[in-house]
Fold this protein.
Amino acid sequence: EEQLVESGGGSIQPGGSLRLSCAASGFTVSSNYMSWVRQAPGKGLEWVSVIYSGGGTYYADSVKGRFTISRDSSKNTLYLQMNSLRADDTAMYYCARDSRGPFQWGQGTLVTVSS
Amino acid sequence: DIQMTQSPSSLSASVGDRVTITCRASQGIGNDLGWYQQIPGKAPKRLIYAASSLQSGVPSRFSGSGSGTEFTLTISSLQPEDFATYYCLQHNSYPLTFGGGTKVEIK
């Protein structure tokens, strides 16, 4: 069964760092486009970042220079390194397999940035 | 960046009603549009891709149409499990952008 499972969320103070993980099963992360999408509490969906199968990356302006998307083929896992976190980064973070847009989603991991 | 304007932001409807949601892109995106359903507390689920193609496993009462800048999601006969929030997403160019969402509530 194809599945995505996120982990690594939690509570963190402003300015801190977190690394989110997204473990995939049933398919190969490095052969697919993979995205991160977030949703602030009570708000809509916001695309965050993508990594191509070829390794290229794109970021939303709101996270550019602070977040880094990567993957580990040996672990079949996608990552999102988040630095210089701000209160407005508080959200549920979803990883998703992407083909003509995200189509297979994990259950999400919650990140709360607060002092 | 491409802006996606979705309307209405909310609507009330009864079981069996025909429901239409619209998304307008700030520039032409061909058919690079998807529609998603989100039930509270759950991850989004893609219903439609390439503007009008039904995702595998999605009931046929859902349909999508449009190209260029105007797109529509139609639910032909609303069912109890369809009460949720719906989003459009353009994937023509980065950054990908979602519409603001349409909350479908029970009348």
User: Anything to note?
Assistant: The interface with chain B takes residues 35, 37, 44-47, 50, 58-61, 94, 100-103, 105-108 of chain A (CB under 8 Å).
